[in-house]
Design brief:
heterodimer, A: 386 residues, alpha+beta, six-stranded antiparallel β-sheet, 6 helices, 23% helix, B: 293 residues, alpha/beta, Rossmann fold, six-stranded parallel β-sheet, two-stranded antiparallel ribbon, 8 helices, 26% helix, signal (chain B)
């Protein structure tokens, strides 16, 4: 700073920007102030036509990105982050559908056999206390024709994790195609297995479980691994019916919950209109103390006004977990609420606010993104001006 | 005249000390698997390449070990964001590979949490002091550039090509990575995806186009199940990974606020920095130098 001061005193009255540069040069650890380098370059009177063209290309690109960032943020934050159109969360619409994958047959040597396609699915990845999970496997050839196979070995293994010592649990898993034990339809070529950790050696286990499956088909051998995460911990339980309230132009759904482990809870619920069409993803993310608490799900007024749903609305498929910081596993799930959880009353859309969401966060972002646009536009104007 | 100069000097010093800390933009680089940089030292660019290389305004290396679970190391990213991306300071983020999973996890789980505004002067552990004791909701992030993002996992984890004793490898299993958090919840911050395609070694394992570690279904920010084969338009037998936010050929879509900025049509870029900002990282670095100012 002293160097800059001396230079300022000896000079002919430099600009504030130049003074800032001198300050930065004197203290090497000081960060470059916002916007400085570009302004200096663009204002240089000695810029050649080639340099000017290069600078113009750079600033045009920055301007394009800045405009896109500002416009999309302004548009996207008309609604709060906890009340979003379901179209923005397409893969969250039906959270209890099996997680399916499709791959070439994997072989023991870590390679694949592209002549055999294996379709696998698991009913969930993260499991609440007491939940079970269903795994399915089917095989087909290149033309899509089913290929018969046998499961030669299947077992569930507790996977090691840092800080966990001792013997890890394991148990045999039985795959079958008899229409029982999680198998949806007998004799369809899809083999299924059911794992219920609470009813075996995994009852008190908290962590990753891998189900290793070895297959034999068409003279070949293959394998597949399913991973699930189980915790016997129940950090909170639902504690009563949903209460709905229209406040400040929005519809709020309050879900009582008895919290035994305080901490950050993330909860998500899906909202459908009267015809069953998915409408919105409602979410909650906040710190809860122990005791009887309320999970507040917001159906934002403007979201309703814009989407114009038919009432009543149905809240369904609510899931959530306690997020554990800086550790693994990082969560303990609340009991999953599958299917319809609550059906709202019928309302007139005019009873809801058409105002956009406002918050300090939104104002802060819009102001900064706006400054970026102004800065880039100013540079482009200078570079394209006379 | 000397008296006038002294007065001016005094006035300037008083004015300078009375001014609040000026706003600054920072460029944070979040590493992927293997790590290598000194944790807590934001000037340690070992993972990427020479620290002297231009990589955006006020560049900082946000180092984590690259082998532990995402959740276990996530505090290091939150520390860095607190340091440089609160108060009047704003950040551009560049992430590589599992750094994508790390950033997505951070924003989905903590993006709306209350943060103390920090002074951008980290201690040896990479933590900064409070600036004025006030707080804000979330961080100040302009956008995220992602080099070969592994937010959707990698089949190399599925088949055991990477050692299963490494905790991160379990997080990178495609089913787990995709279920780990809501990838659409970025706090409306854009993830610009840069997808490399020079991979050949694992083409039997990684579906569609890949960069030798991660396939297009992940590096392109594609929603839904893993295992989707997506390619460059020159491949007639495979669905195209489309640019921007457009749905891909075959109908698969991208996570919200994920946009394909670069698709490696010439199959020129692999996954690896190679100690010199190489592979797909070179493309992200060039874009970041241009746009992160």
């Amino acid at each position: 700073m002293l160097a800059g001061l001396a230079w300022w005193l000896d000079g002919d009255g430099p600009t504030a920007m130049q003074a800032a540069t001198a300050k930065g040069a004197a203290a090497t650890a000081a960060p470059t102030p916002t916007g400085w380098p570009a302004l200096g370059q663009a204002r240089s009177p000695a810029m050649s036509p080639e340099e000017r063209a290069t600078q113009l290309a750079v600033w045009t690109e920055r301007l394009e990105r800045a405009k896109h960032t500002l416009a999309s943020y302004r548009d996207g934050t008309r609604y709060p982050f906890e009340s979003r159109p379901i179209s923005e969360h397409a893969d969250q619409t039906y959270p209890n559908r099996p997680v399916a994958e499709d791959s070439a047959l994997r072989t023991e040597d870590g390679q694949t056999d592209p002549t055999i396609n294996v379709k696998t699915a698991q009913s969930r990845v993260f499991m609440a206390a007491g939940e079970s999970v269903v795994f399915t496997i089917a095989a087909s050839d290149r033309s899509g024709q089913p290929v018969a196979f046998t499961v030669t070995q299947a077992r569930a293994l507790g996977l090691p994790s840092p800080g966990r010592g001792g013997q890890l649990p394991q148990q045999a898993v039985v795959f079958g195609d008899a229409g029982t034990q999680g198998d949806a339809r007998a004799g369809d070529g899809v083999q299924s297995a059911l794992l219920a950790p609470a009813q075996g050696p995994f009852a008190q286990y908290d962590g990753a479980i891998r189900v290793e499956v070895k297959l034999k088909l068409a003279g070949r051998e293959g394998l597949h691994g399913f991973d699930v995460y189980y915790s016997p911990e129940q950090p909170a339980v639902w504690a009563g019916p949903v209460r709905e309230v229209v406040e400040r132009g929005s519809l709020y759904l309050y879900m009582p919950v008895q919290v035994s482990t305080p901490g950050r809870y993330l909860v998500s619920g899906r909202l459908d209109d009267a015809s069953g069409k998915p409408l919105a993803l409602l979410s909650f993310n906040d710190v809860l103390p122990a005791g009887l608490q309320q999970i507040k799900l917001t159906v934002f007024g403007k979201l309703l006004r814009d989407l114009k749903p038919s009432f009543p609305l149905t809240l369904r498929d609510v899931d959530g977990y306690l997020l554990k910081e800086n550790t693994h596993p990082d969560r303990a799930l609340l009991p999953r609420l599958m299917g319809t959880v609550h059906v709202s009353k019928a309302y007139s859309l005019n009873g809801f606010s058409a105002d956009e969401w406002t918050s300090e966060e939104r104002d802060r972002y819009l102001a900064e993104y706006g400054r970026d646009v102004d800065l880039a536009q100013g540079q482009v104007d200078q570079l394209t001006g006379p | 005249m000397i008296k006038l100069y002294r007065s001016l000097v005094a006035l300037f010093v008083v004015a300078a000390t009375a001014l609040p800390a000026y706003a600054a933009n920072y460029t944070l680089w979040v590493n992927g698997r293997t790590g290598g940089g000194q944790i807590g030292n934001y000037n340690s660019f070992t993972y990427w390449g020479p620290a002297t290389t231009a990589a955006g305004v006020n560049k900082k290396a946000v180092n984590w070990d690259g082998r532990s679970n995402i959740s276990s190391q996530n505090y290091l990213i939150r520390d860095a964001l607190d340091c440089f991306c609160t108060g009047t300071n704003w950040c551009y983020i560049a992430a590589h590979s599992a750094g994508d999973l790390m950033m997505g996890y951070t924003l989905a789980n903590y993006g709306g949490s209350t943060r103390y505004k920090k002074n951008a002067s980290p201690n040896a552990a990479g933590q900064c002091g409070n600036s004025d004791g006030s707080t804000q909701v979330g961080w100040n992030i302009k956008w995220v550039n992602v080099a070969s993002g592994a937010g959707g996992g990698s089949e190399l984890s599925d088949v055991g090509s990477w050692t299963t004793s490494e905790p991160l490898v379990k997080d990178l299993k495609t089913t787990t990575a995709r279920a780990l958090y809501n990838h659409n919840s970025t706090r409306n911050v854009w993830f610009y995806m840069f997808a490399g395609a020079s991979g050949t070694l694992y083409s039997g394992i990684l579906p569609g186009q890949d960069d030798e570690a991660v396939a297009y279904h992940s590096t392109g920010g594609v929603s839904g199940s893993g295992g989707q084969g997506l390619c460059n338009p020159s491949d007639w037998f495979c669905n195209d990974l489309n640019m921007g936010t457009a749905a891909n050929e075959g109908g698969s879509t991208k996570w919200s606020y994920h946009s394909v900025k670069f698709r490696d049509n010439n199959e020129s870029y692999n996954h690896y920095a190679n100690g010199n900002w190489g592979g797909i990282i070179s493309v992200v670095r060039a874009d970041t130098v241009t746009n992160a100012q």
